[in-house]
Amino acid sequence: MLDETKVHQRGPDAILRSRHPEGVEQEEYGFLLVHHTIRQGMHQAAMTTGTDPDRLSFTRSLRVVRRQVPAQAAFSP
Predict the structure, then answer these.
(1) Measured in whole angstroms, how far is the alpha carbon of residue 25 from the centre of its chain?
(2) Exposure string (b/e) for 37-76, b if CB count within 10 Å is 16 or more?
(3) pLDDT greater than 60 at residue 70
(4) What are 14-65's pLDDT values in tens digits?
(5) 3-state secondary structure 14-48
């Protein structure tokens, strides 16, 4: 999970934007919520098709989600 969140979801060179501990905590919770949501979607997709959820790729699922989210949703707070 840490690899998926740090390397694939956020990116290896990405730095947290917040300069305050509360903001860093909020950003991390955001990353964890997105990770959980993608994993839950993967599980639902696997159950629908009768596939083992462990056979699905997190990276490919993340790419699908990124393609589906409009650019306007990626605003900076």
Answers:
(1) 16
(2) ebbeebeeeeeeeeeeeeebebeebbeeeeeeeeeeeeee
(3) yes
(4) 777 788 889 888 888 888 898 999 999 999 999 999 999 899 999 999 888 8
(5) CCCCCCCHHHHHHHHHHHHHHHHHHHHHHHHHHHH
* Cα–Cα distance for residue pair 6/17, rounded to 1 Å: 14
Query: How many angstroms separate the Cα of 33 from the Cα of each of 29, 36, 49, 56?
Result: 6, 5, 24, 19
Measure Cα distances from 40 to 22, 35, 44, 53 in Å: 27, 9, 6, 10
Question: pTM to 2 decimals?
Answer: 0.74
Assigned token pair, 2: 């840490």
Longest dimension (CA), the chain: 45
